[in-house]
Amino acid sequence: MKKIIFLIAIVIFPLANYAQTSVFDKFEEMDDVTTVVVTQEAFKMLAKFKSGGEEGAEYFDMVKGLNSFKVFTTENSGIAKQMSDVVSSYLKSAKLTELMRVKDKDAKVKIYVRNGKDDNHVSELLMFVSDMQNKANQEAVILSLTGDIDLNKISKLTEAHIPNSGIK
């Protein structure tokens, strides 16, 4: 499951946006939570390195609009339950739209977005992954991306990397 979560985080990483305090930040200080936080300043610094040809330039152009990328993961059942409760509470007040759900024998993945300045942009992407397999020691992951996320740029970059899609 950790490999799946890591892969999803890497794929979604370019979507991150603005650094602000969120309801999920309390998990950062917990001992049984692994945390990754990339701030707006890090994205600004990354945007200054314009190597990698046309694709690299597009990637860094997209990164300029990002504010924060936060991932909180735990293998502690109690904290996993807290994460689930906080996500549920946040969804009731945050006006996010469910983008997709995936459920298999190992995990449930739910992805939500907040609309941005137009139909081609979102200002927040939230992903919650909960373990279905190990009831005794459940895992959970919260991934939060905020900023000006241009879906057209993401689509263009991901199409170039999807094998056997018929698209370059």
Task: Describe what you observe in this structure.
The protein has 168 residues and is an alpha+beta fold. Helix content is 33%, strand content 32%. The protein is built from 5 helices and 6 strands, in the order αβααβαββββα. The chain has helices at 2-12, 40-47, 53-63, 77-93, 151-159, and strands at 33-38, 66-74, 97-103, 107-115, 121-131, 140-150. Strands 1-2-6-5-4-3 form a 6-stranded antiparallel sheet, with helices on both faces. A hairpin with a 5-residue loop joins strand 4 (107-115) and strand 5. Helix 2 packs antiparallel against helix 3. It is globular and about 50 Å long. The two termini are 29 Å apart.
Q: Uncertain segments of ≥5 residues (pLDDT<50)?
A: 14-19, 161-168
Number of strands: 6
| Total domain count | 1
| Average pLDDT, all residues | 77
Helix content: 25-40%
Rg of Cα set: 16 Å
Secondary-structure blueprint of this entry?
Layout: H1 2-12, E1 33-38, H2 40-47, H3 53-63, E2 66-74, H4 77-93, E3 97-103, E4 107-115, E5 121-131, E6 140-150, H5 151-159
Antiparallel strand pairs: 1-2, 2-6, 3-4, 4-5, 5-6
